[in-house]
Design brief:
305 residues; alpha/beta; Rossmann fold; N-(1-d-carboxylethyl)-l-norvaline Dehydrogenase, domain 2; 2 domains; 12 strands
Length: 305
């Protein structure tokens, strides 16, 4: 019998993973935050996945954090700012051999969760897959991408990667996952805040090439200083490629602000600026970008942490 996949976080990526795992015939349970959310979920017949215009519903079992079943494998797919608190609510259910897959944007929340659970194995993940929720329990697979997974303290790949293969989730085990996470952080810092401040799709940043180039230079300097030279290599060229490839898309941070939701600024731009301060590195454009973004969020009544 396969180990049950518990999925914490019913957002776009959490439901995308849950639906594909269930489609492959694997046992999946979706953990919802309270009885009201569980009742809302139970009123429908399961999770609906829309792929290439075709909708199919999978009967994934829902539960709350109070369910008694022990958790051996937990996909943490909630926002970075929610992850430590959400995992803490489940700590009493985690088996001694529990493994957590941490699928958060930016950096900082992964270390916070790992520090809470010194006996669990925490695997860091970085994904370029695109999905959005059409409604609460319906997810649209918008863009095929890739998921990199790794464990900086334990380089051996887990056997359950076979589950991902069977579920059609493109992935790669990466023995240097921190380089991948730092690179993604830099890409997000170079693109997301500017799309919010200039009120544009990703492609709109082609009209702000000097600003993008200046930020990339400072971010590359930061990565070098933080011992991540591989993540710094050809950063500007990749940022420009991403802007072009996703020109029609709105960044996740833009979408958060447009929908009046809290952003992950603390785990992206905030984390980068704190790292610069720690290394006594002067990055004026990056630091000014954070000030501009904080002011913008405050003006829209949104938290800036």
């Amino acid at each position: 019998m396969s180990t049950t996949w518990h999925v914490l976080g019913a957002g776009s990526l959490g439901t995308l993973w849950a639906a594909r795992l269930a489609r492959a015939g694997l046992p999946v349970r979706l953990i919802l935050r309270d009885k009201a959310r569980l009742a809302s979920y139970q009123a429908v017949s399961g999770l609906t996945l829309v792929e290439q215009g075709q909708a199919r519903t999978y009967p994934v079992t829902g539960e709350t954090v109070d369910s008694p079943e022990p958790i051996h494998r937990l996909l943490v797919a909630c926002k970075a700012y929610d992850a430590p608190g959400a995992v803490a609510q489940l700590e009493h259910r985690l088996a001694p051999d529990a493994e957590l897959i941490l699928l958060q944007n930016g950096l900082g929340s992964q270390d916070a969760v790992a520090a809470q659970l010194p006996l669990a194995r925490c695997i860091f993940a970085s994904s370029t897959e695109g999905a959005f929720r059409e409604s609460d329990w319906c997810v649209v697979f918008a863009g095929h991408g890739y998921t990199w997974l790794g464990d900086a303290s334990h380089p051996t790949a887990p056997l359950w990667l076979d589950d991902l293969r069977g579920a059609g989730i493109p992935h790669e085990w990466n023995t240097d996952i921190l380089t991948r996470l730092w690179r993604k952080l830099a890409l997000n810092c170079a693109i997301n805040p500017l799309t919010v401040l200039h009120q544009c799709r990703n492609g709109g940043l082609q009209d702000h090439q000097c600003e993008v180039a200046t930020l990339c230079a400072e971010l590359a300097e930061l990565l070098e200083c933080c011992g991540q030279p591989a993540a710094a290599q050809d950063l500007q060229a990749e940022v420009e490629r991403v802007i072009q490839a996703t020109a029609a898309n709105y960044s996740s941070m833009y979408q958060d602000v447009a929908n009046g939701r809290r952003t992950e600024i603390s785990y992206l731009l905030g984390y980068a600026c704190q790292a610069a301060t720690r290394h006594q590195l002067s990055l004026p454009h990056l630091q000014q970008l954070q000030v501009r973004l904080v002011n913008h969020l405050s003006a829209h009544g949104l938290p800036s942490d």
